Amino acid sequence: MIFSDHLLTVITFLPTLGALVLLLVGGKGEGADNLARWIALGVTLVTAVLSLYLWVLFDPASTEFQFVENYPWIGDSIGYRMGVDGISVLFIPLTAVLMPAVVLTSWSSITRRVKEYMIVFLILETFMIGAFATLDLAMFYVFFEGTLIPMFLIIGIWGGARRIQATYKFFFYSFTGTVLMLLAIMAMFWQAGTLDIRSLLSFRFPPEVQTWLWIGFFASFAVKMPMWPFHTWLPDAHVEAPTGGSVILAAVLLKMGGYGFIRFSISMFPDASHQFANFVFVLSIAAIIITSLVALVQTDIKKLIAYSSVAHMGFVTMGIFSGNIYGIHGAIFQMISHGIVSAALFLCVGVVYDRMHTREVSAYGGLVERMPRYAFAFMVFTMANVGLPGTSGFVGEFLTMFAVFQVNTWVAFFAAFGVILSAGYALWLYRRVIFGALTRDSLKGILDLDRREIAVLVPLVVLTILFGFYPAPILDATAASVGLVAENFANAIGAAPAAVAAAH
Amino acid sequence: MIQAIVFFPLVGALIAGLLGRIIGHRTSEYITTGLLIGSAVLSWVVFAGYWFAPEAAEGAGHAEATKVVVLSWIHSGALQLDWVLRVDTLTAIMLVVVNTVSSLVHVYSIGYMADDPHRSRFFAYLSLFTFAMLMLVTADNLLQMFFGWEGVGLASYLLIGFWYRRPSANAAAMKAFVVNRVGDFGFALGIFAAFMVLGHLDFDGAFHAVPEHADATMRFLNWDAHAMTVVTLLLFMGAMGKSAQFLLHTWLPDAMAGPTPVSALIHAATMVTAGVFMVARLSPMFEASEFTMMVVMLVGAMTAFFAATVGLVQNDIKRVIAYSTCSQLGYMFVALGVGAYSVGIFHLFTHAFFKALLFLGAGSVIHAMHHEQDMRAMGGLKSKIPFTYWMMIIGTLALTGVGIPGTPLGFAGFFSKDGIIEVAYAAGESTGYIVFWALVVAAMFTSFYSWRLIHLTFHGKPREAHAAHGHDDHAHDDHGHHGSAYDNAHEAPRVMLVPLAILAVGAVLAGLVFNELFFGHAEHIEHFFQGSVVVPHELLEAAHQVPLWVKWSATLAMLLGFGAAWYMYLRDTGMPARLAATNPGLYRFLLNKWYFDELYDRIFVRPALWIGNALWKGFDDWLVDKTLTEGLGHRVKDVTARVVKLQSGYLYHYAFAMLIGIAALLTWAITAGGLL
């Protein structure tokens, strides 16, 4: 079937096509803005449906790459290559399904340069999906790096008061990281003679080379995740970004780091990954404990959620570098779940920000009185953030801690403190914003969720609870590929001591 | 049938929670209550199957538990966990306890919450709690138990904070959740360790693997420890949190900020006993570690003693009962710790009836007094609310364990509590005797504070109403009554009194009827439990053979406490004040609950906030951002400014320049690479 052969290309570039159409929209004023909104919504919805279709067509039993497209471009070494396996396939629906939510949440809150806003987001969507779907390292680099530009514009143009400083920081960090990755990519090319990811996966880099390559990729992904102590750009970027930007940043852009760790670090540099595992564990623990403590004392709602994202990503990195099937499985699950939950939390912040134009915790209190629906949705997401069993937040946290306990009990011991601390900061936030008596005059007229907000949040509530009770759709789709990655990793590090012994 | 028992409450919760506004409060109440009564009736049917199990099953000993697979859950590698409903004798007992008390509390709440504007939400929470608790007791693997465990924690959090306008309720709700999470920290690690050691998380698989690994060691943190000890101690930490045992007990008294029916259901009869249930359920695992068993016993004894001392001086009627609950849970853990699981479960069973009775009775008093909870403002209520008075008397008789040693006559607590004291003595050795005496002293204190409560509340003359008002008032407390609370005191409506009467029947008869099944001959216990808990034959025989003075000791302690309460609160009413004045240090130590809250605030809460602030302002903002990043950034900017005079002032111009540069570099590299 021709269509499904090119499904990945269609999904990836449909948003760009939408952006081109938007360019043609002329005129000014409300009419043109509305047209831009509807076009963006239509394009993102079609892309979302196609991405779900991709998920349906995807064969979970196979460990091979599927929907492969492979055309040489610059010699044989660089090509237009697309394809997904169990590691990457779910990030595409995650991205595509959240995009309509982003468009809807920006519907009335963005009034300046609406057309440009939608164009930038659609291009960003292409880059994000492309980064997950491509099977060529050069293209991965372009997509991965490409996401910086739209995000940079989103924060820089539609952001808050201190947006310039935030964009500067965001760019500075991400860029430094990716430059090192670029060097590593070049080095890989000299070694392997190709940038085809499928060939690279079966290529075995010498252990001493792996170390340097690993560091190069780590620099990029650690900033992207972000891992402690490379995280300080994230809270500022979140605080200044418009709601839609925060949603995409937390839900998708951070996941590119985790995806990269699994696809490249663990799979291509297993010896180095094994060697650096304890280092990553230390940073993960630091992320979980330290940023949770920092989240505890935040006074800005968005900043608190941003810090909690860093803590949750700590579970992801910890799980990935445990190197066993539970850890990688859990890490992917945690990323998908965090994609849903953090997006929803930022959307929730957006709801009250649109009404009150402040993110200060102290400006709120007693919202449940006037906004019971909002309180309910926020409670579900808060509990998912806390990792309550029965919500999607639990499964990933459980699997990653479970995995790391089998490897190193100290790490699991410290990570489990996250269980206590997350309850502390999340409930403390909920208590101050939602509970209490509604005494502020400014809040007396606040309205509950409108229909558009309900349309955005209800699906996320449903998914959060559904995946908590029945995580099989995610776990099954990823199981085979995760098993393969874990098996290869185990073989590689099992073989490593022998290689060392032979060298002596 | 088991599906119906477990999911009826969930259906009720969903209907009342999501559709409550549409269908109205009254309908929500009837639907949730009706479904719960249905569950309760079916539970008794299930229980009867085990109660009257034919003798033919004898010899089989370990009958298979009934299991119903509902849905697959977490499948990853060797980890294959499903949602399974498991029913055996232990589960059946818990089903009866949970659903009976829950349905009665639902009925009672129709009266108690009649004025509340958020009733349907309240009933949704109650039903949600019941569902989570049922998932906990029907769990077939450790993780599903953990689900129920956290689920009841969520419901407890929501219900304690039900009156969300009150800062005290919100603080208590959060405290309950966080302190429980400290216990869950251990529970979670225990689950990981159990899988590592035993290779299974489902109960049957894990229990079968225990003998094989009984002597194994594992490396935990820096120690090579006895594996089963590590596993069980970690799991027990979870039990300590949920069952409010010493060191993790601080949340329970504060949890009384919730509506009183909640206290009866969650913080007396069901949720707090989850820890006891867990240890009993995992008895084959706990048996593998003598050290853990000793810890369980000592923690239980310490809690029983500690909570009873604090209960002596509290003035809030609900707090007295809360500390009493804490203390009675300690008794249960002692029974588990010596290995007499059936006796611990027996006390759980009887305690559910009489403690729920006492709490609902207290609720009736509070209702009568227009939400006054301070006992110093009560007194002489006997004539005003006689029915409640007699119900409270029955509850007190059951709690203090009134009965005649050596005969099968007595209230519920007499059988179960005295049973625990006897097995503690029979366990022997030095620790057994220390624990035995701690329990006897605690029994005396129990009797004292229980009768103090009765005397202060119902006997004597009515005292002037204190200014302190409304600990348990409804969200709106303008109830337009004039005159003192005493004058207006009135008996509760019938819908609240019927549940009291039913519970009273249980408080009188539960011990008498079920003694043989739980604490009779070892064969009978074995037959009844069908292998769902470990039954130590020798210990039980020894417990039945203890000297007569041991059997009488608890009764004497009870009489002593009764006498002291009578003397101090009816005869010489100035005496408590004089005692407090002569021992101010001790009095304040007890009144302030051994200063645990202050201690924890100093060593945990405040340092956490301080460190958080220091790390944020000091590390993130100052060191990383200001010093390193910005410093570096300034250097870069300085250099570029000097070398290239392209200061447009817009940051992103620089950024784009950089990006284009990199793109050029990349193109070069790729082309060069491609051509080579």
Overall description:
The complex is a heterodimer of chains A (504) and B (676). By secondary structure, chain A is mostly helical. Chain A has helices at 2-5, 7-24, 29-57, 91-105, 114-133, 137-146, 148-158, 163-192, 197-202, 207-224, 233-240, 243-268, 270-296, 301-322, 325-356, 367-370, 372-386, 392-407, 409-415, 417-433, 451-469, 472-503; strands at residues 66-73, 75-84. In chain B, helix 16 (386-400) runs antiparallel to helix 18. In chain B, 72% of the residues lie in helices and 5% in strands. Chain B is built from 27 helices and six strands. The chains are: A mainly alpha (504), B mainly alpha (676).
Report how far the terminal alpha carbons of chain B are from each other.
74 Å
Report the total helices of chain A. Answer: 22
Instruction: Please state the structural category of chain B.
Output: mainly alpha
Using only C-alpha atoms, the radius of gyration of chain B works out to 29 Å
Overall pLDDT of chain A: 89
Q: Can you list the strand order of the major beta sheet of chain A? A: 1-2
Structural class of chain A: mainly alpha
Oligomer: heterodimer
Cα shape of chain B: globular
Order of strands across the biggest sheet of chain B? 1-2
Largest sheet of chain B: 2 strands, antiparallel
What Rg of chain A is obtained from the alpha carbons, in whole angstroms? 22 Å
Number of strands of chain B: 6
